[in-house]
Structure formats: structure tokens, C-alpha cells
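Per reviewer request, we include the raw input and output of the structure prediction for the construct analysed in the revised manuscript.
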Amino acid sequence: MTRIGFIGLGNMGGPMAANLARAGHRMQVFDLVPESLSRAIEAGCIAAGNAREAVSGCELVISMLPAGEHVRSLWLGESVGERGGQDLLAALSPGTVV
């Protein structure tokens, strides 16, 4: 099955990632909340140490974040608060579907 990176395991993202894992996809997941990662592991997902690790080698990447500012920070590296941005687009393999 497909190797999927999933970032954001809250009220919507957690159940979505769990459903994809149950369907047989290899799920590499990340969230800032440790409890969300624990639930994803119980559902069969593989926890990544950070967002870049979650998308490494994936064919498809899904992000399920609370607001546009979080999405911009993750994908484009625009700073949000003290955490700063990730610029995840630069970490993707060519041909990865986002």
C-alpha cells in the first residue's frame, strides 16, 4: 500500500490517520501533542520525531492543522510564534502528492 505522511492528529486528523492505517497504508505521523501520537501508535501508525521525518520517503502527505497560519508555517516556513516554520515543501521528494 501507499506510504503516507500525516501531520496533525487532532479531532479530525487522528481518526483519519487511524482509518488509513487500518486500510493497510504505512502511516508516518507527527503531532506536537504526545497524547495524539500515542493514540496514533495504538491505531497502527509509526510516530515520527518531527514533521520532516514524517514526510521522509512518502508518496503522499496530508496535513490537518487548525488554521491557515499553521499551514503556512509548516509548508512554507513562515514563522508562527517562537517555534518558527518548517519549510516542509523543501523536504519532499519529487512527485510527492500533498
